[in-house]
Design brief:
CATH architecture of the largest domain: 4-Layer Sandwich
Helix content: 25-40%
Distance between the termini: 8 Å
């Protein structure tokens, strides 16, 4: 634990993403003031996701402010539930994060409503009492009203003695590293929450911003102990997958998060259209939410990196894909399943836990000609993780299916930086602050802790749920 020798009255409590990747949720205590850092959805197995409806492990009346690092639902997904249960304070976020949350959280509400309807029909047949929906679209609308937005590098006092500044985390549009400058009882402390950090030199967005000073860093560790392929190798690998699929006369399925990965995949397909021979393919973005999120990306050109900015100047829309089909309706989505070869299908959810990708997997996973590109982190217990782990059989909509398709893990397209990226981001702090590693499985956190200790002589903590750290 990081202590100052004298109790400063500043503490961190860990309630989520402490030993797992999803469900980000931490509380910073400054005397009697409480700041909730993220309030994310728990994702994974059915048992994991059932925890989302549990009572919060803290009193809502004690929370004075919420600070949200970015829009992904494993960081934002329980905010409407927080509001539904009585939280009435501000939710501080980047302006782009609010715009994306309006899309993602309404979709999350739709999924929650469908899940509750399905469960209640089953419960009714058993004579059981119905369950309540986790939250609905009205709860989302009420939640969005409580957002107070800001941009990058614009300090603002959010509570007496506590100044917040957002820095670009390079993960998705509007993603932030959270910088909190605190003065309390004669003590001054600077606490940095990394949020989710993106890869350096990745397409579209800027690299993670450099921070130089902190007393404590709360740092993600999703890919501790792992290295992604380089951008050059990743582009080569995708080209090979497309060439192999064309040779086998099959389809390519890309489970993609509607926010971030879908936009990057479209960008790369447009940029390498001729190189990859994409005129011979039909490309489908089969996600209404991804279509909406892509428009939000287009509304924030000042957050692009130089390469994407130059490309945008030449175009009126995202990189041109002359054979791109945006399928919004369920009927349009179902029509895709009649195609046996020559289709590139980008659909959610990114971990294959629901959404339209399940229908496409049902029609393709058993085909020897099909190819599946996994481009993001897959939580334990998810269908995506079982595909990555090489399971010979998977269950989709209750039916066991043989996995004959070729599964490719394209780590270089992950929205998360790998161990080298995380170490590079941390290296800018001088002297090295104490580090709490969160948002990672234990093996990844242990590997990241060893790297930080070896390379920077940093002191580290690997907190568990309910642990308390005195700053």
């Amino acid at each position: 634990m990081a202590t100052s020798g004298q109790d400063s009255g500043i503490r961190l409590r860990f309630y989520g993403a402490a030993g797992e990747v999803t469900g980000s949720c931490h509380i910073l205590e400054v005397g009697e003031q409480r700041i909730l850092l993220d309030c994310g959805m728990i994702q994974g197995s059915a048992r994991d996701e059932a925890r989302n409806s549990n009572p919060f492990p803290f009193k809502l009346d004690d929370i004075n402010a919420v600070v949200l690092s970015h829009a992904h639902v494993d960081h934002s997904g329980r905010l409407p539930l927080l509001v539904k249960r009585g939280y009435r304070g501000p939710i501080h976020a980047h302006r782009a994060t609010r715009d994306l949350c309006r899309i993602l959280l309404r979709d999350s509400a739709s999924l929650a409503e469908r899940d509750a309807d399905y469960q209640n029909r089953r419960r009714a047949r058993k004579g059981l009492q119905p369950i309540d929906v986790l939250y609905d679209k009205e709860d989302v609308d009420n939640c969005i009203k409580q957002f107070e937005v800001n941009g990058y590098e614009k300090p603002c006092e959010i509570l007496p003695g506590i100044t917040l500044c957002f820095h670009d985390a390079g993960h998705i549009l509007g993603s932030c590293s959270v910088d909190l400058d605190i003065t309390h009882q004669g003590h001054r402390r600077r606490i940095v929450f990394s949020g989710d950090l993106g890869q350096y030199d990745a397409p579209i967005l800027e690299d993670p911003a450099t921070l130089k000073d902190a007393d404590l860093v709360l740092m993600e560790s999703t890919y501790g102990g792992r290295r992604h392929r380089s951008h050059h190798e990743t582009i080569k690998e995708i080209g090979e997958v497309i060439a192999n699929a064309e040779h086998h006369r099959g389809n390519i399925l890309i489970p993609a998060f509607a926010l971030g990965r879908s936009q990057e995949v479209l960008y790369l397909l447009g940029k390498h259209y001729d190189e990859w021979g994409l005129e011979r393919w039909r490309i489908f973005l089969d996600s209404p939410m991804a279509v909406e999120a892509t428009q939000v990306y287009w509304d924030y050109p000042h957050l692009y990196d130089e390469d994407a900015t130059n490309l945008r100047r030449q175009l009126e829309h995202m990189p041109v894909l002359r054979n791109l089909h945006l399928t919004r309706s369920p009927d349009e989505s179902r029509m895709i399943n009649r195609i046996e070869n020559g289709a590139i299908i980008i659909a959610g959810s990114g971990m294959c836990t629901g959404g339209r990708i399940l229908h496409h997997l049902k029609h393709n996973v058993w085909r020897k000609t099909a190819h599946i590109m996994i481009i993001g982190y897959q939580a334990p217990g998810t269908l995506g993780r079982r595909l990555v782990d090489g399971n010979q059989y998977v269950r989709i909509y209750g039916e066991a299916m043989r996995v004959n398709a070729t599964v490719h893990t394209i780590g270089g397209l992950s929205a998360h930086g790998d161990e080298d990226d995380l170490a590079r981001w941390f290296s800018s702090f001088s002297p090295p602050p104490h580090v709490c590693l969160v948002h990672g499985e234990d093996k990844a956190r242990e590997a990241m802790a060893a790297r930080l200790q070896r390379e920077f002589a940093a002191s580290t903590t690997i907190p568990g749920p309910g642990d308390v750290l005195t700053v």
